[in-house]
Design brief:
The chain has eight helices and eight strands; from the N terminus they run βαβαβαβαβαβααββα. The chain is of the alpha/beta class.
């Protein structure tokens, strides 16, 4: 059940990213922080996005310090705050990112959460679905044209191996499921990530913008912070078997920067290698229905 049994991702070779602009969501801690740190150390201009203004600002300072220690003379790191449970905030974030980045080459949709109990988002949608799928869907749509104009560019969706636990997907009921299970909602939202990634890849063909999804590994992070049982298992029992956040960032970085993957799109990765995704992701009609429902739910 833990990451060590699925293998540890290999150490990465630095990719030259000077002149490249990147955005990492969920970057105030965990694998998002480590992903943004490495991008900055490799020379990218990075915007870190987090929910807490204090923690996100502190993360940006830490990332800039790490970049300077690795020889980046004047790291350009910015912090932006957004609660992904509010689509209105996501729209404001999109506006801020477009104002900061005249070009955008890497978008890493990393933010996510796992709730134990049903909660409504700001717009009244089930929050796990809203944060894990609707928010990155909307943000990607807001930034899509800028990325096309900046191509080659890459959109990276941090999903989970648990997406395969969702055996079916009732797309029309995702925002307001008749019954709620924390693990079920999480698995469904992670399946949405892979479905969206694959459909986006199809719709971006010919633009030199790629879209890929990945499982980062089973990691000791705060994604289970709202689930006492899972947090206990992760913090007390599972930590010796879990990947570190730095190890967990490696597959994300591999997909976002590895030169041989420049034209690879619509794929799913684990342990820095292409891996099979749920068979449901092959269903073109399901992908199209999710796209249409997502457009309807995020329409301002």
């Amino acid at each position: 059940m833990f990451g060590i049994f699925h293998g540890r991702p290999p150490a990465l070779t630095a990719e030259p990213l000077r002149g490249r602009d990147a955005v990492v969501t969920g970057a105030s801690a965990g694998i998002g922080l480590e992903t943004a740190r490495t991008l900055a150390m490799w020379g990218a201009r990075v915007t870190v996005v987090g929910r807490s203004a204090e923690r996100t600002a502190r993360a940006a300072e830490e990332i800039a310090r790490s970049a300077r220690e690795h020889g980046v003379a004047s790291p350009d790191i910015a912090a932006m705050v957004c609660d992904f449970a509010s689509l209105a905030e996501v729209r404001r974030l999109g506006e801020g990112l477009l104002a900061r980045h005249s070009k955008l080459h890497i978008l890493i949709n990393n933010a996510g959460l796992w709730l134990q109990r049903r909660q409504p988002s700001a717009e009244g949608h089930e929050t796990t679905f809203a944060v894990n799928h609707l928010a990155p869907f909307l943000l990607t749509m807001l930034l899509r044209d800028r990325m096309i104009a900046s191509a080659p560019a890459r959109v990276v969706h941090v999903s989970s191996r648990l997406h395969s636990d969702a055996r079916t997907l009732a797309v029309e009921h995702l925002a307001a499921p008749p019954r709620f299970s924390g693990i079920g909602a999480y698995a469904s939202s992670k399946l949405c990530n892979v479905l969206f990634s694959r459909e986006l890849a199809e719709r971006l063909k010919g633009t030199s913008v790629t879209s890929n999804a990945l499982h980062p590994g089973d990691i000791a992070t705060e994604v289970t912070r709202d689930n006492r049982v899972l947090s206990f298992l992760s913090d007390r029992l599972g930590r010796p078997f879990l990947l570190t956040p730095e190890e967990g960032s490696r597959t994300t970085l591999h997909v976002a920067t590895h030169a041989p993957l420049l034209e690879v799109t619509g794929r799913y990765f684990s342990v820095c290698k292409e891996a099979p995704a749920s068979k449901l992701t092959e269903d073109a009609s399901l992908r199209a229905r999710l796209w249409d429902v997502s457009c309807a739910l995020t329409r301002g």
